[in-house]
Amino acid sequence: MNATSRRRGSGWRTLGWLVLALAVLLLLAVLGSRLVPVGGNPQAQAPLPASPELIEQGAYVARLGDCAACHTAPGGRPFAGGLAIASPVGAIYSTNITPDRDTGIGAYTYGEFERAVRRGVDRHGRSLYPAMPYPAFSRISDADLAALYAYLMHGVAPVAQPDRASGIPWPLSMRWPLAYWRALFAPRAPASVPAPGGADPVLARGAYLVEGLGHCGACHTPRAITLQEKALDARGGPLYLSGGSIDNWVAPSLRGEAASGLGGVGEDELVELLKTGRNGRSAIFGSMVDAVEHSTQYFTDADLHAVARYLKSLPPRREEAAPAYDAAVAKALHAGDASAAGARLYLDNCAACHRSDGRGYAQVYPALAGNPAVNGGNPASLIRLVLGGGAMPGTEGGPTQFAMPPFGARLSDQDVAQVLSFVRSSWGNRGDAVAAAQVHELRGKLPEPRAAMTGYDPRAH
Amino acid sequence: MKRMPPVDAVIVGFGWTGAIMGMELAEAGLKVLALERGEYRDTSPDFSYPGIVDELAYGIRGMLFQPLARETVTIRHGVNETAVPYRQYGSFLFGNNVGGAGVHWNGQHYRPSPEDLEFASHVRQRYGAKFTPPDMQIQDYGVGYAELEPYLEKFEYLCGTSGRAGNLGGRIQEGGNPFEGPRARDYPNPPMADTYGAQLFADAARERGLHPFPQPSSNASRPYTNPLGVRLGPCNFCGFCERFGCYMYSKAAPQTTILPVLMRRPNFQLRTRSHVLKVNLDAGGRRATGVTYVDAQGEQVEQPAELVIVAAFQMHNVRLMLLSGIGKPYDPASGTGVIGRNYAYQMMSSIAAFYDPDTAINPFIGAGAGGTQIVDDFNSDHFDHGPHGFVGGAYLFGGQTGGRPIQQLAVPPGTPAWGAAWKRAAKQSYLHTTFVGTHGSVMAYRDRYLDLDPTYRDAFGQPLLRITFDWHDNEYRMTRFVTDRAQEVVDAMKPRQSSQTVRQPGDHYDIRQYQTTHTTGGVIMGSDPSTSALNRYLQSWDVPNVFVTGASAFPQNLGYNPTGLIGGLTYWAARAIRETYLKHPGPLVQA
């Protein structure tokens, strides 16, 4: 056999494997769409008539679930979709969930709506991208879902705006593999979900809000390589809400770690933070700004307390010593001693607001001393804040959006590493040193730093 | 011409008074539109650190100011001279963009003395009708201190003013201004800490039997939440106030006190890059129908409105009234007419005190208002003017608002203006020099007024405003008297050397030298329609659905910074609109 025929034989074999693989894929695709169970009843009608009270209740449910966060694009009409959501394989775009019959969800029966929200399948049987947090939403009670349906169908203005096709290239754009993802990773919602209850109704309500509508785990729980959250509720183990990341921000642990979690944060402090976007020691920044502006500031006080109490019930994943304030650095800086590495940079760039004692000003400039965001293992959020700045959310209880300027154009990678290492090791903080290489890597991923605009700035859109 | 849907109230200019009126009228449920000819500006991104701390860009080139190439004023010293345009910033600074001069002010936040508001009556009563020269046209405001007090307070609580009360309900308070009118409540925040220069001044003043107190400061001394829920951060004495926006959210401005709430109200709208050409009147000329403006595309737009608030800077208010034909223009020959009447300015003097190197003034520690000490013993009618032959006065101030290298660096007299010797002196003096100054009143006179220039026009082809102004003897005497008192304090401060800048009799008003941006008058308030353009509620006597806010309403200039009174008068007028006018639109005072 000469070389040519060997090659030809090899080509035939490859083709054979390809045909076989395609056949298997085709089978999987057919099976996936037909046989992976969905549940629910697409023919089901709304259990309750859309009374004004129900619509209003549904508006609140939409706030709890922060539907607008994804389904309203900046400057766009409410719930008309079109927001780009980055995925590892390309951008996908949120859909129109206004009651427009042709381009929105106006044609959805209640049963089809239920399947989309709790089961991740649209009315054509296609699986939704898990950017839609249906694993969490599978916990939404029948009552809340009926209210949400009433609100979206009758309380929202229909907008004719076709959904935008995803930017994911074929073959990755094929949706059928998502059916297997769903089967493997999403809990299957029962036919009927009662309202939460139990021996401690506040804790039960908190669990319902955090694990369900609030879908906090979407950012705050680490994800596996296959992108599912590693735990979906408190029973799923200590990885639940133990910290994740989104958009180059660290979503910190919401468990009871003493230094890097909520161990040192009181229930009332947490309530104030979620309601107004700031409190006596801390402030909301990064991706959480939208969540507070559009969602948590509208929670009732009872719901905020339920959320806070539930979070405070989660034991730490790691044992950490509680940070204790150390006055040595403040004393040195007061005395004019800026000889420590990074101290001079801190005085020149940070101390006006955060002060030489690292305590900031209550309700205005966050404290760095003892701040869980400063003491976390991953410094990405701190680097990002220093390079790009940020602004607090604007809320009813805290309308001023105090902004931190971007220092990216002013400080080198080495400067940023040095000043953050100083911050993470001063006033009792115990974060690891930051390396210039970490700053360099993140700087390359971030957009050009620009000082933040307020939400009401007419130039913003 | 494009015609926009009508609104309940249109506000011309979106600085301090436009923002206050916008908030008040929006709270009353009106559909409110504010028109601002400049750009939108906010703490972030526009005043963000470190970009804003650029003296060349903001202090010298005036990035926050109105571009004079598009519109300015003309100036002459007397009625027989030809006026020429003010082409480069000197004497006063026109704010531009959202926030107006409320962005680049220092935050020196005063109330008038009670007698200032009834100045003509008070002077006549105490010194007799012959005490003042016949061409001096001083008048009463038509509103008294007691009536106005709650509104002065309201503005202070909006701003988070830091200070120490000197008179609480008639009881004089140690460490405050004993000459001030009674306050119902203390300042919302305690005073800022004193700079070292201010301490030296206060100690010397006290030694001389005077009554120093911390300057009332709308630079917040601590975190503060105002009654609207808007928050300010504490001032860090960075020394970049006047001519700059505040990156610390510490200086009260519309941005740091009102806009976070007002801009989110659905019944309020702001249109920037909208230059108002005139207030439109109906055929009878007794009712405004709205305004005409030029939009960002250069197109003329008609904006109908039920109520027109003219809330631009003092000069611009006067000009808009003249261009719109509301009220009779003032004629200096006959002394009749009201629009343009009683233009006044202020008279400053200053003394630089140079110390040896062992006295560390550290001028880079400074704030626009806080950290300065004040002596009010020689202001208003706080002393017997009988022997001195003038009316009015000045407060003395000691300390520094910053140590910016270009505009705040003094060298001892006799130093060359450039070169190695100047550099040496600058280096030796910088850390060891402080300032004492006087901030004085200017009276109104028959021949000092504003009208439309016959020659020069703006970028839209409309005539510029013409200023006819020069000093009178009363002011030369006033400034000599108060500067002598200031020099006595400086001498008691025991500097190595001092140098005085004071206007001498015969010196003309020089528009190239910065003094204050406190220009006043031209659309003044009062109780007689033949001598005032507005009634006591800032309502036009001639066109009752037009209200005019700002220092254009002051009948003459006081020795204080005007912003506190401007804010108080605006709240006072807003209350009258909300509680009376909106129920029965029409004149609030019968002429």
TrEMBL record, chain A:
Alphabetic keyword roster: Cell membrane, Electron transport, Heme, Iron, Membrane, Metal-binding, Repeat, Signal, Transport
Swiss-Prot/TrEMBL cofactor(s): heme c
GO CC, alphabetical: plasma membrane
InterPro entries: Cyt_c-like_dom, Cyt_c-like_dom_sf, Cyt_C_IC, Cytochrome_c-type_DH, Membr-bd_ADH_cyt_c
TM helices/strands, residue ranges: none
Cofactor binding notes: Binds 3 heme c groups covalently per subunit.
Entry's localization field: Cell membrane
Cytochrome c domain residues: 53-156, 201-315, 337-427
A molecular function (GO) term: iron ion binding
A Pfam family of this chain: Cytochrom_C
Residues involved in heme c 1 binding: 67, 70-71
PANTHER family: ALCOHOL DEHYDROGENASE CYTOCHROME C SUBUNIT (PTHR35008:SF8), BLL4482 PROTEIN-RELATED (PTHR35008)
Protein name: Mono/diheme cytochrome c family protein
Automatic annotation (TrEMBL), chain B:
GO molecular function: flavin adenine dinucleotide binding; oxidoreductase activity, acting on CH-OH group of donors
Domain Glucose-methanol-choline oxidoreductase N-terminal: 233-344
Keyword terms, alphabetized: FAD, Flavoprotein, Oxidoreductase
Domain Glucose-methanol-choline oxidoreductase C-terminal: residue ranges: 452-566
Top-rank taxon, per record: Bacteria
A Pfam cross-reference name: GMC_oxred_N
InterPro entries per record: FAD/NAD-bd_sf, GMC_OxRdtase_N, GMC_OxRtase_C
Database matches in PANTHER family: LONG-CHAIN-ALCOHOL OXIDASE
Family that this chain belongs to: Belongs to the GMC oxidoreductase family.
Protein name listed in UniProt: Gluconate 2-dehydrogenase alpha chain
